[in-house]
Design a protein that fits this description.
The complex is a heterodimer of chains A (346) and B (318).
Chain A (H helix, E strand, L loop, with lengths): L1 H16 L5 H11 L1 H18 L1 H8 L12 E4 L2 E4 L1 E3 L8 E3 L20 H37 L1 H16 L2 H15 L1 E3 L2 E3 L5 H26 L3 H9 L3 H37 L11 H9 L7 H28 L10
Antiparallel strand pairs in A: 1-2, 3-4, 5-6
Helix pairs in contact in A: 2-12, 3-5, 3-12, 4-5, 5-6, 5-8, 5-10, 5-11, 6-8, 7-8, 8-10, 9-10, 10-11, 10-12, 11-12
Chain B lengths: L2 E14 L2 E14 L3 E5 L6 H8 L7 E6 L2 E2 L5 H4 L6 E4 L13 H11 L5 H14 L16 H13 L5 E5 L7 H18 L2 E6 L2 H7 L2 E6 L2 E7 H6 L4 H8 L43 H5 L5 E2 L3 E3 L8
Parallel strand pairs in B: 3-8, 3-9, 6-7, 7-8
Antiparallel strand pairs in B: 1-2, 1-4, 4-5, 9-10, 10-12, 11-12
Helix pairs in contact in B: 3-4, 3-5, 4-5
The chains are: A mainly alpha (346), B alpha/beta (318).
């Protein structure tokens, strides 16, 4: 009797499983059909994988330590042992010229920088930092923005007024100016705010700075979306059932704005990574001897005429990753809301 | 029959651009335990707003509402929470009243979770039971609203409303968004549930045919006011207010061959006046075929007559 009933239920569940896949699963299926998004995702995966394997490359393939200078080192090029750094004879005659790309993965594939460090190994390690900072600051930014945007849009009134003015103030600053100001102050002293302690020079510092300056960019559209939800009948229904504000925000509002947050995530990761690179390029992001794509571009700048590969390689990495993230983000947006207008306007 | 809900002089104004819209104007009503009170009127006459006032989904501008003898007019949302299980609302639009991102089972479970019905297993059992009760397949528990038809969605809304064994259900045009063939099914469901669970309904509609089918008593609204309240039979047999008469004459009738004369169609002239700029005296006088000079100046109160309550200086029937 029970088994018969069970069997009937499983059969029913099996029938139901097909058409009743939730909105997330349907979006994933749509995303899989989007060729450019899949290619972008595959490319990203490749980049991430390469960066994750940075220690393997540095330790087993190139056998160098990319974080210590190697001024007296040598490399083997065309069977000949040559110094990594040669006294410069060109240009203004100042400083040194490191060896260029050897195209030999075992020894300075992309050449050395002006401290004799392997550029390829630094590129991979730098990618780790760039990606890590980009992703974690995007997560932090979206988390803060979701809370603030939902609260502002849901309650409206003075709460909204206060939060919106805060967004305006942050938004009013040029992004880089604000980031540089924060960095200059925080990088020397570290951040000590109540229970939060971040040491000067920690990687978490650029993460927090970049996350904070972009909060309004995500929170504003979310706030608008929540305000539009405010008059929906299912929110009235929830009030009629006796749900508290917190419960309504969590269980009714949040599931409806979460797709937007998910769309923002890859786009913000790209934007934050670019910001990180820019800050590091300006020496107010990742601090030496740590590397990021931004610091490598900066390192390469002094050698731009003699060894352009350094700057080009790092710039290409940043560019490709940003493009891939944006294509993926567009795909995610299309998948989550097939009716959405293509980007533009906003 | 005891009084379950009592509304006294309920007024609800909305402010729009400096003007006050008198959505509900001095409405007094009684809903008795176990009955169905139909509320009819043209769209925009304040029926839905009245419904929301009755269950305190919105604040009243003035007047009072008593539920089970308790004055709920000024209770905060938090203070209303313990009363919510007893008074529930079914919404007009079954598309808008369900969260598109939550499954049907989840929607029906929500009131149970809010009011601490029991552990997850108890909630699941109760939701399955409710699905049976409203005629939904248990296999559809995990489906999302977009996968249901309008009628099925309204059943989900009904299941959600009756989940906590309410005393009073205010149904705000629950079938007007549905196909006619589905309307009958949902109306029958309302009737079955009333019998089974001893529910009291306030049934809001603009379709007199629908209201007649379900109501014990009927309140007719015009421009935010109740103009006539009577037993359904009396109202249909002999309307007392000229507006009710005009409304009834607009209901299409089937010639059953019995030779009973059809109602003469009364076509009202003019539009419904704006609720911002209400007419003086009786609010119906600009359109009333039987208006007298007195109607222009003096607002008729809702008076008790032999068979009903009517707000007219010159009622058509005593």
């Amino acid at each position: 009797m029970t088994s018969a009933a069970d069997k009937a239920r499983t059969a029913a569940a099996g029938r139901a499983a097909g058409p009743s896949a939730g909105p997330w699963r349907r979006a994933l299926a749509r995303l899989r059909r989007n060729r450019s998004a899949v290619i972008a995702a595959a490319g990203l995966l490749l980049i991430v994988l390469a960066c994750v394997l940075a220690p393997v490359y540095a330790g087993a393939v190139a056998r160098t330590d990319p974080f210590t200078s190697n001024a007296s080192g040598t490399a083997i090029v065309d069977g000949q042992r040559v110094p990594v750094l040669a006294q410069s004879t060109e240009g203004l005659g100042l400083g040194v010229t490191p060896i260029g790309p050897t195209w030999d993965p075992g020894s300075y594939l992309l050449g050395a920088d002006n401290q004799g460090r392997d550029v390829m190994a630094r590129l991979l390690y730098g990618g780790r930092n760039s990606l890590l900072i980009g992703l974690s600051s995007a997560l932090l930014c979206c988390a803060i923005a979701t809370v603030l945007g939902v609260v502002a849009g849901y309650f409206g009134g003075w709460i909204d007024a206060v939060l919106s003015r805060f967004f305006d103030v942050v938004w009013a600053f040029p992004v880089y100016l604000l980031a540089i100001c924060l960095s200059v102050v925080l990088l020397t002293s570290g951040l000590h705010l109540g229970p939060i302690h971040i040491d000067a020079g920690s990687l978490a510092l650029p993460v927090v700075i970049i996350a904070l300056i972009y909060v309004p960019y995500v929170a504003r559209p979310l706030r608008g979306q929540v305000m539009a939800l405010r008059d929906k009948e299912f929110l009235h229904a929830a009030v009629g059932l006796g749900a508290s504000d917190l419960r309504i925000m969590r269980r009714e509002v949040l599931p409806n704005v979460l797709p937007t947050v998910v769309v923002f995530l890859p786009l913000m990761t790209a934007l934050n990574m670019l910001t990180e690179s820019a800050l590091s390029f300006l020496s107010v992001g990742v601090q030496s001897p740590d590397a990021s794509w931004g610091t490598i571009i900066n390192d390469g700048l002094a050698l731009l005429y003699t060894r352009p590969a350094i700057t080009l390689a790092a710039g290409l990495c940043v560019g490709l990753t940003a493009v891939a993230l944006n294509v993926l983000g567009d795909g995610v947006r299309d998948a989550l809301d097939p009716n959405a207008r293509l980007r533009g306007g906003a | 029959m005891s009084t379950l809900l009592k509304a006294t002089d309920v007024v609800k104004h909305f402010r729009t651009g400096g003007h006050a819209v008198h959505a509900v104007n001095q409405v007094s009503l009684e809903v008795r335990s176990g009955e169905t009170l139909g509320v009819v009127g043209e769209s925009g006459c304040g029926k839905s707003t009245l419904g929301r006032c009755l269950v305190r989904l919105t604040d009243l501008t003035s007047g009072s509402v008593e539920f089970q003898g308790q004055d709920i007019t000024r209770l905060s949302r938090r203070a209303l929470r313990p009363l919510r299980p007893a008074m529930q609302l079914v919404f007009q639009d079954p598309y808008a009243s369900l969260n598109p991102r939550r499954t049907a089972g989840d929607a029906v479970a929500e009131p149970l979770r809010i009011h601490g019905y029991g552990d997850a297993a108890a909630v699941r059992n109760r939701v399955a039971e409710l699905f049976d009760l409203v005629g939904l397949a248990r296999a559809h528990l995990d489906r999302y609203p977009h996968e249901f038809s309008g009628g099925q969605r309204q059943r989900i809304g009904i299941a959600r409303a009756i989940a906590l064994d309410p005393k009073l259900v205010v149904a705000d045009e629950p079938v007007s968004a549905l196909d006619v063939s589905v309307q009958a099914q949902v109306l029958n469901l309302f009737a079955d549930l009333q019998e089974e669970l001893g529910l009291t309904y306030v049934f809001i509609a603009h379709d007199l045919g629908v209201v007649r089918h379900v109501s014990d008593r009927i309140a007719v609204m015009y421009l935010g006011e109740v103009v006539e309240v009577a037993e359904a039979e009396d109202l249909y047999a002999a309307p007392a207010h000229p507006y009710t008469e005009a409304l009834l004459s607009a209901v299409p009738e089937i010639d059953d061959g019995s030779g009973t004369p059809r109602r003469e169609r009364i076509v009202l002239t003019g539009d419904v006046p704006s609720p911002i700029d209400r007419p003086s005296g009786c609010s119906f006088h600009p359109r009333c075929p039987a208006a007298q000079p007195r109607c222009r100046t003096e607002r008729p109160p809702l008076r008790q007559t032999a068979t009903r309550q009517v707000a007219c200086h010159y009622p058509l029937t005593p």
